[in-house]
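Memo to structure team: turn this sequence into structure tokens by end of day. - J.P.
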Amino acid sequence: MRNKIIRVTAGIIPREEGKYLIAQRKGEPLVLDGKWEFPGGKIRPGETLKECLRRELREEHGVEVVVGDFFDKSIHPYPFGTVELSAFWVKHISGEFESRVHYETREVYPLEMRKYDIAPADLPFVEKLINL
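Reply from structure team:
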């Protein structure tokens, strides 16, 4: 099971005043329950990374977005498999952010993210944002 590769997307979503959106995970896998992450989700067969991210943000957060340029990639082994996380810059177009499958979402400055229990696969993105 540990050798299973799970391809996932994440959105780096700028908000006002230099803040970015993060969301607190709820549910499965339990090892990640309560961890904070950049919103996104798992890729379905035949879907591109950008299509996946747009769909996931619509389904899980009720927003329409434009997925922009590639931001970075992180590969992290978890007990349930290895996550290959591809992040993209995202522009929010319409809709109010909802927490349909998360405990909550927050808009925070990159330096503040160090105070949150960030999912390990997302940590490199936090550091990159801090150093921009």
